[in-house]
Write a structure and sequence with these properties.
- By secondary structure, the chain is an alpha/beta fold.
- 36% of the residues lie in helices and 13% in strands.
- It has a single domain (55-247), classed as 3-Layer(aba) Sandwich (Rossmann fold), CATH 3.40.50.2020.
- It contains 8 helices and 6 strands; from the N terminus they run αααβααβαβαββαβ.
- Helix 5 (109-123) crosses helix 6 (153-165).
- The longest helix has 23 residues, at 2-24.
- The termini are far apart.
């Protein structure tokens, strides 16, 4: 009984301290720094800004004119994707483009977590096609990326999505065995060749019969996701989908950093 009273007292004290700190330092939106709800990382306006209901291909999430059917698109039929579906928050334009660029820096961890939360919430709305929980696999970087100044965005996003969704994350099942050129510097035809045989499945037993979600910040040509989906399905995955914060369109804005894929 005494132990329970001590725990309850400490919990009440911690709650009062948290409420007091919220009064002095109100929670701020990770993007615009406006006050926001304690349980939210973004204010209502920024959540609406970053979760776009744009008309898209149901399969690859490419933007489409509303006069076209969206069950698939010409590029899907031409590319013969091995992945089943792409889920994204918005297109790689405007504020979303600026947010993606910022997320690559360590000091923007709250923004990265906010985007992971939003993407995780979207994934929970997707149907599950196996009895086991879907498996999150971040698109792997080459080991030399550890010496760069940018973060491992894909891995950090996957960790955030795992926290939001409760889905397991597998960070070592797939690895990048060859350093590739930056996809954004290549033509769309060259991107497919650039990533061919750049990855390997290290532990195929971990994906047997599983629904897999590849996680990254941006998808543009789809070449990286397509190559990884090919390998994972060959290794025994039941289905491979793609979850990205933004869907690139191949159209560059003035001053924009090019998208990875």
């Amino acid at each position: 009984m005494l132990g329970c009273l001590v725990v309850m007292t400490r919990f009440a004290a911690a709650t009062r301290l948290s409420n007091f700190l919220d009064l002095i330092y109100p929670p701020e939106c990770a993007w615009c720094q406006a006050p926001c709800e304690l349980t939210e990382r973004l204010c209502a306006g920024c959540r609406a800004r970053f979760v776009s209901g744009y008309y898209r291909c149901h399969r690859c999430a490419a933007p489409l004119p509303q006069v076209l059917p969206n069950h698939d698109c010409a590029r899907c039929r031409q590319a013969k994707w091995r992945f089943t579906r792409v889920v994204t928050l918005a297109t790689y334009r405007g504020d979303m483009r600026r947010a993606i660029i910022s997320m690559k820096r360590n000091r923007f961890e709250p923004l990265r977590r906010a985007m992971a939360d939003l993407l995780g919430q979207q994934l929970l709305l997707e149907p599950q096609h196996t009895d086991a929980l879907p498996l999150l696999i971040p698109v792997p970087y080459h080991w030399s990326h550890a010496f760069s100044s940018s973060t491992n965005t894909a891995e950090l996003l996957a960790q955030g999505i795992a926290t939001t969704s409760g889905w397991p994350i597998a960070q070592r099942i797939v690895r990048r065995i060859r350093k590739t050129s930056k996809q954004g510097m290549l033509s769309w035809a060259e991107r497919k060749t650039n990533v061919r045989h750049a990855f390997s499945v290290k532990s195929p037993d971990g994906i047997q019969g599983r629904q897999v979600w590849l996680v990254d910040d941006v998808m543009t040509s789809g070449a990286t996701a397509a190559e990884l989906a090919r390998l994972l399905l060959k290794a025994g995955a039941a289905q491979v989908n793609v979850a990205v914060v933004a869907r690139g369109t191949g159209v560059r804005e003035s001053g924009a950093n090019v998208a990875k894929q």
